[in-house]
Amino acid sequence: MRTQVAIIGGGPAGLLLSHLLHLQGIDSVVLESRDRGYVERRQRAGMLEQGTTDVLRESGAGERLDREGLVHHGLELRFGGAGHRIPLTDLTGRTVTVYAQTEIVKDLVARRLADGGDVRFETEAVGVDASAPSVAFRDRAGRTGTLECDYIAACDGFHGVGRPAVPGLRTFSREYPFAWLGILADVPPSTEELIYAGHERGFALHSLRSPQVSRLYLQVPPDEDIAAWPDARIWEELAARFATGDGWKLQEGPITDKSITPMRSFVAEPMRHDRLFLAGDAAHIVPPTGAKGLNLAVSDVIVLARALTERYATGSDTLLDAYSSTCLRRVWRAEHFSYWMTTLLHVDPAADDFALRLQRSHLDYVVSSEAAKTTLAENYTGLPIG
Ligand code: RFL
Ligand code: PHB
């Protein structure tokens, strides 16, 4: 078997890369270890930067996004019993859009298949040769095979096989002393814009998926057992952390999905070895507080698709050679922003009174200074790609 670009992983990064390459007349095969239903239902990100919605729209994969995506112009920081709006669009001229990762994946799978794309579900990459180059795989029937190619894109997430195939990799990481308990609930959101709440009991986030479905998160200990959180306790804790002095009320409804996600920062450098390129969560992880993970995966593959397009069109390696350093500049900015939002809003169990006073002072500053609000807004809505 042979293709131009072998793509490991059918998450947002792998599927979008395959789609962008197809538009440039470049062939690819996507190998995805899970089945289609699993990939399309995995609950994850929800907040898209304008650069992410722009590329989906410009590449012809944004039709449903345009109909169903919810465009936001601001967010709320809530602490000390009061809300403070950050007017993202007034400060930056840009918007963000709530449209679930599950829906992006569904749209891209449908689009690749409609265009005759080769997306192989239940086909696991088991070996990577960055020099030959080729990918060894095992299909759903247990048969093994080899996919020969010109280039390999490892879009296989944090636990994939791509990153271990890069020799001499340098890694950087932080573990946080907390995790997020996330729920989906069949109840209209109690807010139009996202609420990021800092509270002495811990962080809470009110997000949404549609006018009928709310998505909420609670800071919990890193080793928390989900069984310790029956629905009633979740609603009670959310109400306590979002409470204000002005009669605002959190609406409750049936919880349809519940999970705990550990928080981690991680970067692997470089993002390339020979003909193997790492993209998305395969190369870096951010804690979800800044809503950057999916958006970084998208910006990586935009840079990679441009570089491969130049290579096939002109024979020039210039953009491919710059791939890792181009991506890492944006990655490190997002790493810093996500770390900053996380430490600004979460309760570190080891924090002493001095640290807590500094944190409160920082929050007061962010919501009262035009310069600080603008810094938050320009990072949140997304810095330029490439
Ligand atoms: P993915 O989505 O993990 O996809 C990788 C795919 O590779 C497959 N795979 C393999 N396939 C074949 N052979 C192998 N050997 C393979 N090994 C793995 C996997 O099955 C999978 O399908 O990575 P990708 O494409 O890089 O996308 C990254 C995003 O999924 C991730 O960054 C975001 O979900 C992070 N994230 C958020 N990002 C945002 O931009 N905004 C948000 O609001 C946001 N909220 C979140 C989040 C992540 C969360 N969790 C659960 C981690 C909220 C949460 C709770
Ligand atoms: C989400 O809607 O899932 C979401 C939104 C913003 C974040 C993280 C997650 O910062």
Strand order of the largest sheet: 6-5-14-15-16-13-17-20
Fraction of residues in H or I helices:
25-40%
* CATH hierarchy, class of the largest domain: Alpha Beta
Ligand names: 8-demethyl-8-dimethylamino-flavin-adenine-dinucleotide, P-hydroxybenzoic acid
CATH architectural name of the largest domain: 3-Layer(bba) Sandwich
- CATH superfamily of the largest domain, by name, is FAD/NAD(P)-binding domain
Q: Any idea what the shape is?
A: globular
Q: Oligomerization state of this entry? A: single chain
State Rg: 21 Å
Q: How many distinct helices?
A: 11
| Average residue pLDDT | 97
> Regions with pLDDT < 50 over 5+ consecutive residues?
none
Number of strands: 20
Q: What structural category do the secondary elements indicate? A: alpha+beta
**What separation lies between the terminal Cα atoms?**
33 Å
Biggest β-sheet strands, sense, barrel: 8 strands, mixed
Number of domains: 2
InterPro entries: FAD-bd, FAD/NAD-bd_sf, PheA/TfdB_FAD_monoxygenase
GO molecular function: 4-hydroxybenzoate 3-monooxygenase activity; FAD binding
Organism: Actinomadura physcomitrii
Protein name: 4-hydroxybenzoate 3-monooxygenase
SSE diagram, text form:
Layout: E1 5-8, H1 12-23, E2 28-31, H2 36-41, E3 47-48, H3 50-58, H4 63-68, E4 70-72, E5 75-79, E6 82-86, H5 88-92, E7 96-98, H6 101-114, E8 118-120, E9 124-129, E10 134-138, E11 144-148, E12 151-154, E13 170-185, E14 195-197, E15 204-208, E16 214-220, H7 231-242, E17 255-269, E18 272-273, E19 276-278, E20 284-285, H8 293-314, H9 318-345, H10 353-368, H11 370-381
Parallel strand pairs: 1-2, 1-12, 2-8, 5-14, 12-19
Antiparallel strand pairs: 3-7, 4-7, 5-6, 9-10, 10-11, 13-16, 13-17, 14-15, 15-16, 17-20, 18-19
Helix pairs in contact: 1-6, 1-8, 8-9, 10-11
The structure holds 8-demethyl-8-dimethylamino-flavin-adenine-dinucleotide and P-hydroxybenzoic acid.
